[in-house]
Amino acid sequence: MRIRTYVGLLKQAFRKPVVNPIAIEIANIRIRRTITIDTINIAQQHYREQTLGDPQGATKYCDYAYWMRTNIIRAARLRLHKASKLKILDLGCGAGYFVAVCRYLGHEALGADLPPDEMNLLDATVYPILTAALGRGEMILPLKISRFTKLDIVGEFDLITAFMICFNSHPTPDVWGVSEWEFFLDDVRRHLRPEGRLFLQLNHDSKCYPHLHYYSPEQLKMFSRFGVVDRDEILIRK
Known about the structure:
Largest sheet: 7 strands, mixed
Oligomer: single chain
Strand order of the largest sheet: 3-2-1-4-5-7-6
Order of helices and strands: HHHHHEHEHEEHEHEE
Low-confidence stretches: none
């Protein structure tokens, strides 16, 4: 991992609450022993050109070092290493790194992402390779999230997460407005247990939102009614 990239991860780690970088590395080493790292390394080499051509595609998740540390930090900042066993759902889970970290920490975790027939051919090929290598293939639910459509999920969860949300069509002009977000938030909260949490991390989109970067003033006002907003992060409690 390049030094500059790693420094960026450490900056994430020291956003409140503080996370010990040594603990991050210990967790990384222990999780690494439970997965098929050789498969991920081979995939990273094989798809290097595709990643350079499309940095936002599924092949970016072949960079195990970056994405595992990123998701260890995410889990630690949510205090999951301090929590008793939780039932967790990660929306838009990608390759399933966050699910792998949650499972390592003793939680019951599932991921959800687009069904293969909704992906392009490359993404539909890469995701199964990575989820299998992480040992989480059967824990990823097929789920398409659409505007004004209720989530097709069963059960209630202590924590629902959605990192780097892209189901609202970033960076195209077809982004969700206040009405779409209100519908989604009202719907997803139905799947939270009492005292459950919903944690969202929004995409940076300075073209669509030149002043606030993550949302319009109207959307910020709406998000603030539901929960606590801290830059790109939104925490909502039931």
